[in-house]
Amino acid sequence: MPTNPDWVKALKPATDGAALLKKERAKSDLPVEKLTVFLFGEEFLETRRNILKVLQSEKIFDKSANYYSGRIQRFEAALARAKRLRMLAVEHDWSLEDHNVAVDLLAEPIPYMLHGTMFLLTLFNQASEKQAAKYFMKAMNYEIIGCYAQTELGHGSNVKGLETTATWNPDDKTFTIHSPTLTASKWWIGTLGRTANYAVVMAQLIVNGENHGPHPFVVQIRDMKTHQPLEGVHIGDVGPKVGYNTMDNGFMLFNNYKVPHEAMLARYSRVDPETNTYIKPPSAALVYGTMTWVRSTIVWQAGGVLARGVTIAIRYCAVRQQFQDKDSESPDGSETQVLDYTMVSYRLLTLLAATFALHFSGKLMMEMYQKGQRNLSDKISEKEKEEILSMMADLHATSCGLKSLASTTAADGLEQARRACGGHGYSSFSGIGPLFADYLPNVTWEGDNYMLTQQVANYLLKTARSVRMGFPPVNDTATIFRYFYDRAEMGCAFDILGSDADIVAAFAWRSSFLAFNLLDKRDSEKMAWNDLLVDMYRLSKAHSQYMIVKNFYDTLNSEETKKSLDEKTLEIMWKLFRLYSLNTLESEASEFYASGAVTVKQAMLTRQSAVMKLLKEIRPHAVRLVDAWDFPDWQLDSALGRYDGKVYEDMFRRASELNPLNEITVDPYPSSTTIFKSTGNLKSKL
Amino acid sequence: MPTNPDWVKALKPATDGAALLKKERAKSDLPVEKLTVFLFGEEFLETRRNILKVLQSEKIFDKSANYYSGRIQRFEAALARAKRLRMLAVEHDWSLEDHNVAVDLLAEPIPYMLHGTMFLLTLFNQASEKQAAKYFMKAMNYEIIGCYAQTELGHGSNVKGLETTATWNPDDKTFTIHSPTLTASKWWIGTLGRTANYAVVMAQLIVNGENHGPHPFVVQIRDMKTHQPLEGVHIGDVGPKVGYNTMDNGFMLFNNYKVPHEAMLARYSRVDPETNTYIKPPSAALVYGTMTWVRSTIVWQAGGVLARGVTIAIRYCAVRQQFQDKDSESPDGSETQVLDYTMVSYRLLTLLAATFALHFSGKLMMEMYQKGQRNLSDKISEKEKEEILSMMADLHATSCGLKSLASTTAADGLEQARRACGGHGYSSFSGIGPLFADYLPNVTWEGDNYMLTQQVANYLLKTARSVRMGFPPVNDTATIFRYFYDRAEMGCAFDILGSDADIVAAFAWRSSFLAFNLLDKRDSEKMAWNDLLVDMYRLSKAHSQYMIVKNFYDTLNSEETKKSLDEKTLEIMWKLFRLYSLNTLESEASEFYASGAVTVKQAMLTRQSAVMKLLKEIRPHAVRLVDAWDFPDWQLDSALGRYDGKVYEDMFRRASELNPLNEITVDPYPSSTTIFKSTGNLKSKL
């Protein structure tokens, strides 16, 4: 790499970023560490610190080449890191959660990911005892590397439409797995493209000519020694993507590929090899469980992911100075910190409030889910059981809506944070662009964010229908039933500027208004389902926003919170609650008017006085509030978001000292077709 | 590259995309070619066809490796293409516009770009005759390759804050160009990183200790033979970015670098070497011109860029079938085309309407600008001149607001279109992700989209102040003055569902309401400028939306349009006008209520009846409407957006036949630190 001459090395930036951040931190007395402990718990923080130390001590996890490397180099590095992570997990006796913490710090998808999650999980849940004995421990020990092959080139959302078939052969007691068409090709399958030698394959089970729908089969797909695909299996990587390029998402086709009877995962349903008949699962599985958990995790993570972008943007906008405020008559002529412009703080502090809102909702929902699961396993009456199941169904619907809202909020919020960084936000060194690119699949997978809202609305419609039919609430834990039921008592003019409880009530009111409005359209006006999809999307959003506002409110009101946080911190958290709620209300104002929840005057005052005032009150604490998220610099890998504020030094170092493009000298003239005059030791780098 | 076995080659997709698109095109009788000619003119289309033929006939422009290549390979290919384009321009006698058409078809930024635009333009506008003789023809002939070095590491938006200095030395009649700090480093300079050997450098001119502000200097920066940076100049590429990676954006620092007197571009201002004094420009330059033109171009291009994404998404969503509509009882059990779901058509057809809206506004504004310029050069009275200048100032303010709105609409719209493609939208092969990434700088450069709205609001405030003070309108061509002035006559209850003219009037009403509201806050309540930035952003958006709606309306009402388009096409264009306008109105409903322009009831009906009905009426024409944009497949380079609908075949071909990652075989076990088992001929590819 060409080195910087001495006169360049001697230069200092005109802006002292370190001093500016120091001043920022001095402006506020928010006890950062206490808030951090409140957010994550001491145990988790301790674990994270220890794992970080381990990772930073090994050269293989050095990130300095990441932003410059092409696809193949990045995949190569990621696989090497995945291998090392696995060895470290064994060495340090890491749990699955510990391993996930390490991947989170590494901040890149690793090629083993689907082995460690969906492949193992499916074996665990769906394998018979015999199958578990054969595969599970081998998979746990990484003697076989698996993936989960469900989505196809032609079908993603509609699982029932999968085209891959598994036909039972009574003669030799085998299944034939087959791809009848090109669109039957498995597609997007993580870990499959280059890495896995086993797969759980979802295929239409056909017995005696009858189709019993998609079922899982565990199948060897590559040779254990040569790693070549087996005869009759065609596999490859699906190619480059917007992000996630350290992962080998794969495709796979089968040509009448025979697998033994034991390939079909037989814990619940199976084919009897004696009678050649299909045996149904004893009861439709209680699917709420895992899915509620997965979606609540996405909500919880959405807060954290967004917080990474917001941390970077807020620190940089506190360091970046540009222009003087038009009315300012600063005596020293120094420029204004960009974060002081209300157009910037309006964008970034509202996102900051959203990070906490999402974090609390995800956390609360996971706790509720776990509590429900625990209570179910106790010895309880049928009536109690029914109540808990009703609450769990409620929670499931809400988790679908929140998954949609939270991942959209995080994805769009990251891009907003990137733009708030101005020109330098476009550099990979900002760290936000690459994070956004890797995060984007979240708006599509685990239920596309638009599609999913149909499920939410469907559940809300059913609940509204029950309420209208006069059924009493099952119990107080079924939130949706409760707030639909209570709407008559609420009234519909809320003091959103004077009472926090009224803010929550206004959100409940608007959501139930939309729900009953939709019910009229569907049941009375008999409108077509397809003509109501936009209303359903809006209803799901309204319900989810209500839940987030309610969860934020409940969290701050809880005894645990009051015990954990000092008064000053709690006061700022309440301000963040109001900022999130009132800003959301204002941006959805027309639905709040239409429902009669607020007046036009109230909504105007909301932004013009309440929100703008909150921004000013929160502004001095902005840097400390992002500090509370406690992201190590190593995780953020951002020149703009450094804890120490040395933004410009880092931008320059990454451009001039690490950038391999600077090793080449070109021939610039169009009359010559030669491009490179010299390439230095570039080849060795590629 | 591993080849697909014969059994794979024999597979067909279950969905016949070609048949589906054929059916789509048969559903509508919209005369596509006529609409295309109306949009672009026959001459332009002829040119584009010819240039496309030239490009497609040369292997150097083959795009098949683009999506797989790393930064250095992409830069290398782009420079090779830039060179060849230049030679072709000479060979075929291409104008600058022709050259731009070629780059647009190539669809990647080329490393010569800033030479061909800003470097040449600045020499043309600001060089003295002597300087022009020395540099201009050389630059035109690419004997010197230049760039335009303004932005610095520490300053982008605030040009007055630049830190690079150019100090006049009376003794030897030279300037010393110097970077006093690290943040003085030039940054983001296109074409500088590896390619240019000359630069126009903007630096603070210091004469006799007095700073006269930023001035341009033309400076040699690299050796003409070795291409190494000259002594005292330090240059490099700034590193990888979200997109735009075929361009070598560079940094540059100067260490007391001496340049001759003639380096300062001296057409308007100069340093007299005899008296050692600074000579000011005779009058503040009429800067409106170029900037209005550049911004109108961004508006016009925004329509086209967005249309590329919308073309891809609409074609793919017409081919993709998923689920059955919940109420449907389709006898053949076939799945529904995704585009038929209202949640999808709502998102994509409103974007489709926006493409036309932006296109017409950009076109109309460029025409108005050119007309104004032409009329100015005629022999006209002082009064007429004043009128034209007033109109041009108006146009300038509007072009700022429209640049902000249009580029945000296009950038966000591209991402919306990508998400509407579901999972496959995430593949690079969709073509939308890479386009989005390359387009993003538009929201920041030529005036950051948030910052710029202050300028717009400032102009609108001044105009509102004049109106309030009772000044009569200068003339009818100054739109802003006119609609502010006329607001009293408008009344404030508009029949937006019954009258197209009323739709336009409602937008005018809301914008002028916001303007006078802001004027009250600033002038009567004496609110701080900084506390009004969010209001200014909203006002600018409101004014810009009004202008787009008005321009769309005026375009469809013009005699030329009525002559060019048949009745049926015109009818569909009016529907697109209504869809764009009413959907915009509904999404900004709270401002329309607050201003009294519409009632809550009207706004609810707008979406629930008018917009949903328009979607159904436009839906059959969707594919033909995107066909009218006439993008060659070669330009889109998208598996999903193919004209022939062969989506799945192309996805599979790009993954299995072109993807270099599939050349490697890995060792998958964590116990081994080896990654690659074999690399085939991969190295030769890197």
Automatic annotation (TrEMBL), chains A, B:
Active-site residues, as the UniProt record annotates them: 446 (proton acceptor)
Entry-linked Gene3D superfamilies: Acyl-CoA dehydrogenase/oxidase, N-terminal domain, Butyryl-CoA Dehydrogenase, subunit A, domain 2, Butyryl-CoA Dehydrogenase, subunit A, domain 3
The cross-references to SUPFAM superfamilies, in alphabetical order and at most eight, read: Acyl-CoA dehydrogenase C-terminal domain-like, Acyl-CoA dehydrogenase NM domain-like
Query: Any idea which positions bind FAD?
Result: 151, 190
Lineage: superkingdom = Eukaryota
> What GO molecular function annotations does the UniProt record carry, in alphabetical order?
acyl-CoA oxidase activity; FAD binding; fatty acid binding
What are the GO BP annotations of this UniProt entry?
Answer: fatty acid beta-oxidation using acyl-CoA oxidase; lipid homeostasis
- Similarity section: Belongs to the acyl-CoA oxidase family.
* UniProt protein name: Acyl-coenzyme A oxidase
